[in-house]
Amino acid sequence: MIDTIDGAEITGVILAGGRGTRMGGADKGLQNFNGVPLALHTLLRLSPQVGEVMINANRNLAAYESFGVPVWPDAGGLGEFSGPLAGFITGLERCETPYMLTVPCDTPLFCEELVPRLAEALARENADFAVVAAPEEDGQLRAQPVFCLMRAGMLESLAVFTAGGGRKIDAWTAQHKTVLVPFNQPGDDPRAFFNANTLAELHQLEALRP
Ligand SMILES: Nc1nc2c(ncn2[C@@H]2O[C@H](COP(=O)(O)OP(=O)(O)OP(=O)(O)O)[C@@H](O)[C@H]2O)c(=O)[nH]1
Ligand SMILES: [Mg+2]
């Protein structure tokens, strides 16, 4: 059994490919959080933890490209805006490292120890997926399946799952060995995984930290 997986073996994929319906159709990743576009904020927090990073976006690609990492839109095989698993497919098709981690663009305060903690759990349990479990506003711990570390060899399984009409991340990961990693340990910020679906939520998040 390996002790853990080095961050250098992981490609981080920033998921910014959604419609942003609850944000009035805005391209969420380009909305400012304390003056920095959400996707760039995510990139700055993620890059020190992983070997490679890419952004998955479907609109305003030039704006995302200006952040200096590769940007890939969904190939469209699942139909337009078919959900986060389309971004997982895009990432797995481009991933050149043994592991891939997805992170959404709308959760700017996510834990700075995200990668080592998921990597340690994946290695310890010899699992295919390590998924964040974090407290929501009501204090209940829930899986946050868009924060998902996986083996890069999962593309074939995902192709089969989506070809059968599957669109839910947790329904797919449930077909494999998945470890949930709790982020409610002593010292963890209970608000670290709060995300912004609306502009009001984005402004609430901005108010949490200077
Ligand atoms: N590649 C890709 N990513 C998506 C798609 N839909 C959602 N996502 C991403 O998945 C993550 C979680 O999605 P949501 O929070 O629902 O974001 P959203 O779909 O843009 O917003 P709503 O339209 O309000 O649901 C976000 O990081 C989105 O960018 C999609 O069709 N393709
Ligand atoms: Mg959505």
TrEMBL record:
UniProt keyword annotations, A-Z: Cytoplasm, GTP-binding, Magnesium, Metal-binding, Molybdenum cofactor biosynthesis, Nucleotide-binding, Nucleotidyltransferase, Transferase
- Report the EC code(s) recorded for this entry: 2.7.7.77
Q: Name one GO cellular component term.
A: cytoplasm
The UniProt entry, under InterPro entries, shows: MobA-like_NTP_Trfase (IPR025877), Molybde_CF_guanTrfase (IPR013482), Nucleotide-diphossugar_trans (IPR029044)
Which residues are recorded as binding Mg(2+)? Answer: D106
Amino acids binding GTP: L15, A16, G17, K28, N56, D74, D106
Q: CDD domains from the xrefs?
A: MobA
Q: List each copy of the MobA-like NTP transferase domain by range.
A: 12-171
Report a single Gene Ontology molecular function. molybdenum cofactor guanylyltransferase activity
* The protein's required cofactors: Mg(2+)
Q: Which reaction does it catalyse?
A: Mo-molybdopterin + GTP + H(+) = Mo-molybdopterin guanine dinucleotide + diphosphate
The main enzyme category here is transferase
Q: Which GO BP terms sit in this record?
A: bis(molybdopterin guanine dinucleotide)molybdenum biosynthetic process
Subcellular location(s) per record? Cytoplasm
Q: A Pfam family matched by this chain, by name?
A: NTP_transf_3
HAMAP family named in the record: MobA (MF_00316)
- Subunit text: Monomer.
Family affiliation:
Belongs to the MobA family.
Q: What does this protein do?
A: Transfers a GMP moiety from GTP to Mo-molybdopterin (Mo-MPT) cofactor (Moco or molybdenum cofactor) to form Mo-molybdopterin guanine dinucleotide (Mo-MGD) cofactor.
Q: What free text does the record give on domains?
A: The N-terminal domain determines nucleotide recognition and specific binding, while the C-terminal domain determines the specific binding to the target protein.
Name the NCBIfam families on file.
Answer: molyb_mobA (TIGR02665)
Q: What is this protein called?
A: Molybdenum cofactor guanylyltransferase
- The protein's organism comes out as Polaromonas eurypsychrophila
Its ancestry begins with: Bacteria, Pseudomonadati, Pseudomonadota, Betaproteobacteria, Burkholderiales
